[in-house]
Amino acid sequence: MPAAVPPTFRPSPRAVGIAAAVITVLVWTGFIIIARASAARSLSPLDIAVCRMVGASLILVPWGAWLVAQQRRAAASERGSLFGLSPLSLRLSALAGIFGGVAYAVLAYSGFFFAPAAHASVLLPGSLPLWTALLAALVLGDRITPMRAAGLALIVLGDLLVGGRSLLHAFEGGDVWKGDLLFMSAAFCWACYSVVVRRHALDAVRTTIAITVFALLTYVPVYAVLAWAGAVHSRLPAAPWGEIAFQMLFQGVGSVVVSGITFTKMIGHFGPVRSTMITALVPGLSALGAGLFLGEPMHWTLLAGLALVTAGILFGVQRAAIKKVAVSAIPVGAGGRFDA
């Protein structure tokens, strides 16, 4: 009589969804805190962007080559591009890659060298729903409902409380306002990327691979040539290998690959509305982490701005959720995202 095969453990879909949500929130929170802490270390913001792109490429480039080979064997309409490494067309790879791959990384990491992490906690995730809603209305013809407009107004007030304070001190010689503007510009670039993804109904995994491949084949070699020619100063040659490896692991594998997969899993289980509400925890957690781990002061304007931004995100999403439940003909996932 053959021996009984022991049953394999398979976590429930709920357990997978909760784990994906926890990992996503932790990685997004860690991104803000670690990026700010990295400003006091050896690498420049442009160096960190290189580490992000190269680290993510170690996993996503082979994955992309495999997907393109599968597409071509299946005689699919999408044949891939960029030497058979990107599963999207060259046009879409470049369009998404410029905004979501190169511009976002360069602007966001540069911002951390001027402004504290607590400001990024408000302005990066806080500006994103605002820019995305405005771009979606302009490009996609989305209607901004009164309830959504109210949520966006709260976000604008919160951003002004945080960024306005640093702008007032700009005449005194401070540089924090530069970081605030860089954070808002980075959020604008990610909003452009989000609209491109939505307009062309792009797959999350394939698009993440495409923007990584595009960044690897454009930004990295151009930066290497400029650094070799002395046009920009790179600190990579003098930086400790351990620091470079850590940035590649966290910024590349963690922030791009792991959080990209877990975010997709989270949406698959909780849906876009509840997922957005879950990620609304990031501003508060990252601001708290900035105070605990980086010793950053918590001014009343920062706390008030944080509260307004978080309330604006939750308010807009909650109203979208109520409308979605009331209209049962709308399929799951349609029109539920506050930031899309």
Write a brief structural summary.
74% of the residues lie in helices and 0% in strands. It has 340 residues and is mostly helical. The chain is globular.
Structure, explained:
With 340 residues, the protein is an all-alpha fold. It has one domain. Helices cover 74% and strands 0% of the residues. It contains ten helices and no strands. The chain has helices spanning 13-38, 45-73, 90-111, 117-140, 146-168, 176-199, 204-229, 241-279, 281-293, 300-326. α8 crosses α10 (300-326). It starts with 12 loop residues before the first helix and ends in a 14-residue tail after the last helix. Mean pLDDT is 85; it is low at 321-340.
As a percent range, the share of helical residues equals over 70%
Low-confidence stretches: 321-340
End-to-end Cα distance? 58 Å
Instruction: Please tell me the total number of domains.
Output: 1
Per DSSP, the total helix count is 10
Mean pLDDT: 85
Largest sheet: none
Number of strands: 0
The structural class is mainly alpha
Encode the helix/strand succession as letters. HHHHHHHHHH
Report the principal-axis shape: globular
Radius of gyration: 21 Å
What percent strand? Answer: under 5%
List the helices and strands and how they pair.
Elements lengths: L12 H26 L6 H29 L16 H22 L5 H24 L5 H23 L7 H24 L4 H26 L11 H39 L1 H13 L6 H27 L14
